[in-house]
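During the practical work, I selected for study one protein's amino acid sequence and its backbone structure tokens, as given directly below:
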Amino acid sequence: MSDDILVLAYSGCDTCKKALKWLEARGVSYKTRPIVDAPPTVAELRQWIAQSGVSVRKWLNTSGQSYRALGKEKVDAASDAELVEWLAKDGKLVKRPVLVTKKAVTVGFKPEAYEALFPLHRP
């Protein structure tokens, strides 16, 4: 089943660590991909953003250095297509972790969202 679940994470990210710990505590098998070294491609982002049901702007890591370097004004003026390009070029700009399953994609870690995806996995 680990081939069915992909987690894009950053080793220095506390939120990513919490998400991975949550999955491990419930026996959920997964594969990880380092989001900084191997950020999502433009094609992956387009597909995953659509599957996630949230706007591309919700995929931005607004608390990170990459976002601050761009500046809120530049981000606000950017088109969705531009934002996708930027996200594909800089994994640190992507809100983390990104969890990809066959049935859903989530960005960020919310235990209740993970519970909904893995209802049969209890600690």
In short: The radius of gyration is 14 Å. The helical segments are 14-25, 42-52, 65-70, 72-77, 80-89, 111-117. The chain has six helices and four strands.
